[in-house]
Each structure stands twice: as C-alpha cells, then as structure tokens.
Amino acid sequence: MKTRVRFAPSPTGPLHIGGLRTALFNYLFARKNNGVFILRVEDTDQNRYVEGSEAYIQKSLEWAGMVPDEGPFNGGEFGPYRQSERKEIYKEYIDLLIQKGGAYYAFDKTEDLSNERAAADSEGRTFLYGAQNRMLFDNSLNLSPEETAEKIKGDYVVRLKVEPGQNVTVFDEIRGTIHLDSSLLDDKILMKSDGMPTYHFANVVDDHLMQISCVIRGEEWLPSLPIHQLIYNAFGWKEPKFMHLPLILKPSGKGKLSKRDGDKDGFPVFPMQWDENSSGFKEKGFIASAFINYLALLGWNSGTEQEIFTMAELEKLFNFEGIQKGGARFDYEKAKWVNHQHLQLLEAKTLVQEPAVQEQLIGIDPNKHIDLIKLLKERLFTINDLKEEVHWVKAPFPMDEKIASKLSSKNPQNLLKEISNNIETMEELSDLKERLMTWSKENEIPVGILMQSLRMALVGKLTGPDLFEICKVLGKDVTLKRIDQAISYFNLKSKSL
C-alpha cells in the first residue's frame, strides 16, 4: 500500500506550532517513504470557523517548505479536501452505516438530555447515552420504521451503536497496544442536526476514502482512537496505522504550551504573524530551515548526537522509533541557538537575499551588503539582531556616557588624533591594524586604550564586530569623519571636568 498521510487542521484561528509540528512529522514520514502528503481542512464546525485561517495554514506550510501534494489549493483525485464540501459523501456513508446496524437515528431534545446530565451530576455519576439506557430515549431503536421515517423529516442526530462488553483493541505505533472495555464508551454522535458530521465520523470516512495509510496526530486524540476503531469495525474497513505525538509543553515543563504562554513570556507560538498582536517565528527573525529543525527536535531524536539538520537530512532519518512518549519542553533559547547554527551554514551571498535581511539593510550601500553580512553573521541568533548590529553603519550609537566618562581621563582625543594622522597617510585601510600596533608599541601606548578610543569613536560603545573590519566597511572618509567628531566630543568633555 502506498504511503499516504494527511495533515487535517481546523480553520478556527492561527496555526499553533504544535499543529505545524504534526504537519512536519506527516510530511517527513511521507518523504521518507516516497509517499503523498495531503492537506485536508476539517471545517465541519462552522460555528468556530474563522475567516482567513485556511489561507494562513496554507501560507505557513509553504513558508516552512512543506507544500502539500494534494489539498484544497492544488486539488487531487481524492477531493474535495474541505469537509464542508463533502456533505453528500458523509450522508451516503451514514445511511450505509445505519443499514448495517452500526448506527441509529436519535430524536432527543437538547433540554431533555441536559436534564439527564444534571441529574447524573447531582448523583455523582457520569451520564452516558449508550447500551445501558438507549432504549429509554427517543431514537429509532425503539420506534417502528414508519415512526422513524416520519421523525427524520424533522431534526435528528445519528449515533454510533456501541455494543457493550467488547474488548476494543487498538495499536499505536508509539505507545503500543491499548485495550478498552466498550461498556465504558457512549454512543457518540456521528451526524449533527445540521447534517454535518462530527470529527469522529468524518475523520474515519475521509481517511478510508483518501486511502490514508498512517494517521499521525496529536496525543489529545488518543482517547478517540477506540471510537474510531469501532467505526472502522462497523463498516468492515481495515484501519490505518496510528501514531499519536507527544504534547509540546510549556518552558517550565508543566502543562501544554498555549498562546497565553507566548503572550506572557514574549516568544512566538505561531509560525507566521496572524494579526498585529500575534507575531510568528518568521517575524521574529527565524529562517524556515532552522524553525523546522527545531520543531523536529520537539519530541523526536535521531539516535545520534547530531542536532542540526537540513530538511533533506530529516526526510532521510525520520522514523517512528525516534519519537518519545513523554511531552517535549519548549525552549525558546534553544530555538534561537538552532537558528544561529543555520545562519552560519548559509553563505553571505545567500543570506543577504533573504527579504528580512534586505529590510534591515535599507539605506546601506548595496556594494557593502555581502561584506557586512560576512562580518556580522556569527553574531546573529535571529535576523532581527541585524537591526542593532548594522546601526553603526548608518550612524554611530550615541556615546555610552558611562564608558566615555571613564575613558576621558585617558585623554582619548590625543590618541584619536594620532590614529587620524596615520589613516590620512593610507590609501587603503587593509593594513591599519598592523600600522596602529606598530605605532602603539613604539610609543608605549597601551593597546587596550588605543582600541577602546577608536571603537568608541566609530560605534559609540565597546562591543561589536572586529574593529578593523568595521573600518573597512565604513571606508576611509567615514572613519576619519567619525574620529574627528569623537575628538570634538572628548575635547568638550575634558573642558567640563
């Protein structure tokens, strides 16, 4: 059987990174096995539908490098790929299931069921609509065919008929064999009163008709697996393989990572920006390859010490055995470290083409872009770090007053004048370091004071990339101009002391 997997999100808002990791593991499994990666939009809950979320999901997948082989945007022979467009298909199969005796019509009023639940709650028991009480309710099991035919002209739902006392056996590729007594299950609603299927029914029917060979989804759906197995059994269909992925946990390791955690601690939980209040990893300065690399590490291990992977390497190495059972703790600092490693792997001429990089280089001579990126790349953990790192190219930082005050007692203006004199005699600045080191030694000037004075003149602080590379990027004229400005600054400061 050909490997066919699907990512099936609901368009109820922005795609959480937990959802994108599910997509990633589906994608990697498909590519590892020369299979097909499908996007299926599960939009049966129309009350929760959020405009724009479907397009957002597609764009997020594309940015991450996971373009679906089949889906609502590019079609395929197993479509439609939106569940809202498959209503007639579900009706056909719900009718078939009723004919097989695996499901039945239920006409109970919402008010009556609410009263039953309230009564159960007051008695300290869980209300289940199932084998133990289904004959007490208003459904086709205790009505004549004629009565049923009349009632289905109005509102109804369709419920799964769960036979009690069965040993429901399911197998998960990560967690192994799971057994459950069917008596613990209720008769789940399969078709709602609006004619739309529930998740349980649509999921099984679609997976069967789309020939899904392996279902890879979050562990929150593990409790639903016995229900799905019973539906497969009722139809007489062979179930696919199942793999339920571990949760992505809060940075503390306690509880599932949520949007609120990102809002509270200032890190993204979405791949891309959703609205003005919800930025994503892309907007935070992550490149797609690094983001995908980090997601893969959340719950999967290659079995080696290697942590930095290209997408091609992940496709080759991915396997079930590497997926952990327990939750994976989200670590934003680790994510930035992974991004840093990927930035180092890119050649400057490639990195400079990134739109986010170009945005940070606006106003800087394009002829200097590649040299500038070569100089700064190793200092970057995100592309957004460029904003601060390139500031000195456009203009020096305001002089750090605390450092400048300490330096003023050393009369840096005199040193800067000598540096300026040396530079004036040079055609190029490639030998500036050697020239100043020689001059410093000959005049018994501490190198530290010399370098501090020059760095303060050029960038206004004592941190930054290689000082003499800064001089090369700025060029002779700009370097001399900034030195002259610094001399004036320190002259004024010395007068005020």
How would you describe this structure to a colleague?
This protein is mainly alpha-helical and 497 residues long. Among the domains are: 86-245, Alpha-Beta Complex (Glutamyl-tRNA Synthetase, domain 3), CATH 3.90.800.10; 347-389, no CATH class; 395-496, Arc Repressor Mutant, subunit A, CATH 1.10.10.350. The protein is 44% helix and 9% strand. It is built from 22 helices and 11 strands. The strands form 5 sheets. The chain has a 3-stranded antiparallel β-sheet with strand order 3-4-7. Strands 1-2 form a two-stranded parallel ribbon. Strands 5-6 form a two-stranded antiparallel sheet. Strand 8 (214-218), helix 7 and strand 9 form a beta-alpha-beta unit. Helix 6 packs across helix 7 (225-235). The N and C termini lie far apart (84 Å). 36% of the residues are buried.
Task: Quickly list its features.
11 strands, 497 residues, three-stranded antiparallel beta sheet, two-stranded parallel ribbon, Glutamyl-tRNA Synthetase, domain 3, mainly alpha, Arc Repressor Mutant, subunit A
Q: Can you describe this structure in just a few lines?
A:
By secondary structure, the protein is mostly helical.
Give the quaternary arrangement of the chains. Answer: single chain
**Percent range for β-strand residues:** 5-15%
Helix content: 40-55%
CATH structural class of the domain at 86-245? Alpha Beta
* Rg over alpha carbons: 32 Å
CATH superfamily of the domain at 86-245: Glutamyl-tRNA Synthetase, Domain 3
Unreliable sequence segments: none
Q: How many DSSP helices?
A: 22
